[in-house]
Structure formats: C-alpha cells, structure tokens
Design brief:
It is a single chain. The protein is built from 4 helices and no strands. The chain has one domain. The radius of gyration is 20 Å and the shape is rod-shaped. With 119 residues, the protein is mostly helical. It starts with a helix and ends in a 5-residue tail after the last helix. This is LemA family protein. Keywords: Membrane, Transmembrane, Transmembrane helix.
Length: 119
C-alpha cells in the first residue's frame, strides 16, 4: 500500500513533463507561423514582384529572403530590416531551438509520442 502514492506521484510528474514539452513545441511552431506571416506581409508591402511566392516551405524561405533583399530599393532598407529581416532571423532561431529540443533524449521520446517532426 505504501508504493501506490509513489507510483501515482511519479506518473503524474511524467505526464506533466510530457504535456509541458508538447506545449513548448506547439508554441514554437505557432510562433514560427506568426513570424512567417509577418515576414510575408512585409515582403508584399516592400516588393511587389515577390508577392505571389509561396512561403509555406521553410527551405524556400531563405531563397525568398535573399531574392527580396536583392530586389529591394535603397529607400526601403530600414523598413526591410524591421518587417522582413528580424522575423527571418527569429524564424531561423526558433527552428534551430525546435530541432535541438527534439534531438535531445528525454524530449525526443515526447516528440515521438506526440508526433512532432524536425523542421
């Protein structure tokens, strides 16, 4: 009878850990989507010829960023820095943090259980 509270406490701690990691990974994904949307809006506002490009793929995001930077006029440098470059840098940082978190051992088990894949 003395082991039942210990087992319940350990299982509750494991469940809370799983839920916290899942929430953290889901939060990073939603932050990346918000930043991608703000970057897309910034590119649409600054460069008209790139407004039809698809920004859903994270691999193409780098190409789109460099294309937008090269097509930019000199008068829009400050706006480009605020509306496109900062979100792009934050997306890269969040992607790196997300992939590093999934690669680490206790978190990789939770990622497999909850279906999170590296980006």
């Amino acid at each position: 009878m003395g082991f039942i509270p210990v087992i319940l406490t350990m299982s509750a701690a494991i469940l809370l850990f799983i839920l916290a990691v899942h929430n953290s990974l889901k939060s990073k994904k939603s932050q990346m989507e918000e930043l991608r949307f703000s970057m897309e809006e910034g590119i649409k506002a600054l460069t008209k010829d790139l407004s039809g490009m698809n920004m859903k793929d994270t691999d193409e995001l780098s190409e789109i960023f460099h294309t937008a930077k090269s097509a930019l006029e000199e008068s829009h440098q400050e706006a480009f820095h605020l509306k496109v470059r900062k979100p792009y840098q934050q997306i890269k940082l969040l992607k790196s943090q997300y992939n590093q978190l999934i690669a680490r051992k206790p978190y990789s088990f939770v990622a497999k259980i909850m279906g999170h894949q590296p980006i």
